[in-house]
Amino acid sequence: MKAITDYSSEDLNALLKDLQIQYQEARVQNLNLNMARGKPAAAQLDLSNKLLNKMENYTLADGTDARNYGILEGIPECRQLFGELLGLNPEQIIIGGNASLNLMFDTLSFLCLFGTGGCKPWLWQKYIGTPVKFLCPVPGYDRHFKICEELGIEMISVPLKEDGPDMDIVMDLVRKDASIKGIWCVPLHSNPQGVCYSDHVVDQLASMETAADDFRIFWDNAYGIHHIYEEVPLKDILKACMDAGHPERAYYFFSTSKISFPGAGISLIASGPENIKELKKHMSAQTIGHDKLNQLRHVRFFKTPENIRIHMEKLAEELRPKFDMVLDKLEQNLSGTGLASWSTPRGGYFVSLDTLPGCAKRTVDLARAAGVTLTEAGATYPYGKDPKDSNIRIAPTYPVIEELEKAMDIFTICVKIAGIEKIMKPD
Ligand code: PLP
User: Fold this and answer.
1) For residues 359 and 422, what is the distance between their CA atoms, to the nearest angstrom?
2) 333 Cα–ligand 1 center, Å
3) Which of 206, 216, 349, 383 could form a disulfide with 38 if both were Cys (CB 3.0 to 4.6 A apart)?
4) Ligand 1 atom closest to Cα of 254?
5) Please, are residues 183 and 218 in contact by the beta-carbon 8 Å criterion?
6) How far apart are the first and last CA of the chain?
7) Which residue, judged by its Cα, is nearest atom 7 of ligand 1?
8) Is 347 helix (H, G, I), strand (E, B) or coil?
């Protein structure tokens, strides 16, 4: 398509009128299409239905009855399976409950309340007037930002580049400011851009000098095996930290939310030996143990890491046509216009789109009024404030393909209307 900047003002007016007619046609259809949250579609969930089969035997390999209390760190066969899958030492894994976000919230809460490695509790800092800060690569995952907000941790945005956070900025900040205690990282197929961290970035994060002795990396590998177009390797952060002399620097999170059932899967945290000891101590006051029956169900269902990878390939087959559809629609309807740019993820759950500055909110509002729900504009930034008001997260997984096609047609009309309005009437 022709670049919008090459249009005369009459042509631009005519184009806007034409788009408004198309938009009204869509509005009157009273559609109800949702591209807001990264939820698996029913067809993906169906692939795990055998997890729901009746369990005939509840005895673990070591003779423990999985129906009863106990085993705070999770059953050995489950730690073994996911340790092998992710290249983690099972001794350094704790299996949590049904969601990794819960583990992230709890870990950060423990740090606020109790501190780590003999350092002062992070809450203490608030009372002496230098609240703890976290680095947040942006755009990023809104729920990470919510956790910080809830716990009173100040957030500093750092640009996310093609191979990870802008490390010049990160290294400079953490070297100078002891109140910066951590960074959020989604190292593979990041939410929302699909960024995958390079080995160099992993090494820099592991080895960088930090003013805070208790600096921590929150390594949320939520999409660690969720490849759609291409398998992308990821350097082992726990080993990199160990090799760099910081064995306790990273907390590694993972879950089966987008492998088996979101909200009914299993989660894990892995970290250095001292961190694991601390976590177990705090957790032992919180629970006698997580759901071992669900852990056992997952072990019996998947059996081997190889089977989990085969399962992920089947899920990728479900997702590929949806991502193809979204990317094709963006290409057909917006390419060359100069009104938007977007990511081309190799896996994960999202496509990230940037409108012209000042157009994201208007685009999302227009889409909503035409029956297409998107993640709120601004959600991908700390405090819900996108300084350029340009980033929109597209979640293609949940709708069926026919709905997705309609939703993308309407969405791209909205991107164009908002962009042309802005060009015709800049603030
Ligand atoms: N982390 C990231 C980056 C996510 O995108 C999501 C879900 O969208 C989660 C964590 C949620 O994981 P869980 O269901 O294990 O809490």
Assistant:
1) 7
2) 31
3) 349
4) 15
5) yes
6) 26
7) 38
8) strand
Instruction: For 75, list phi and psi in degrees, rounded to 5.
Output: -70, 145
Backbone phi and psi for residue 342, each to the nearest 5 degrees, phi listed first: -150, 165
Tokens of 266: 């299993």
Q: State how beta strands 180-185 and 216-220 pair.
A: parallel
Report the b/e string of 260-280 with b at 16+ CB within 10 A. Answer: bbbebbbbbbbbbeebbebbe
Listing DSSP states for 179-227 in one string gives TEEEEEE--SS-TTT-----HHHHHHHHH---S-TT-EEEEE-TTTT-B
3-state secondary structure of 394: strand
For 63, the token pair is: 């003779």
Report pLDDT digits (tens) over 106-160.
999 999 999 999 999 999 998 898 999 999 999 999 999 999 999 999 999 999 9
Beta bridge partners of 133: 154, 180
- Give pLDDT tens digits for 260-315: 999 999 999 999 999 999 999 999 999 999 999 999 999 999 999 999 999 999 99
Is there an atom of ligand 1 within 6 Å of 38 CB?
A: yes
The token duo for 161 is: 């580049």
Mean pLDDT over 184-191 rounds to 98
Q: Report the separation in Å between the CA atom of 100 and the middle of ligand 1, taken as the mean of its atom positions.
A: 7
Neighbours of 79 (CB within 10 A): 24
CA of 413 to the centre of ligand 1 (A): 30
Distance 184 CA to ligand 1 centre (A): 13
CB contact set of 24 (below 8 Å; sequence gap of 6+): none
pLDDT, tens digit, 9 for 90 and up, residues 373-418? 999 999 999 999 999 999 999 999 999 999 999 999 999 999 999 9
pLDDT of residue 37: 81
Element (H, E) at 199: helix 199-207
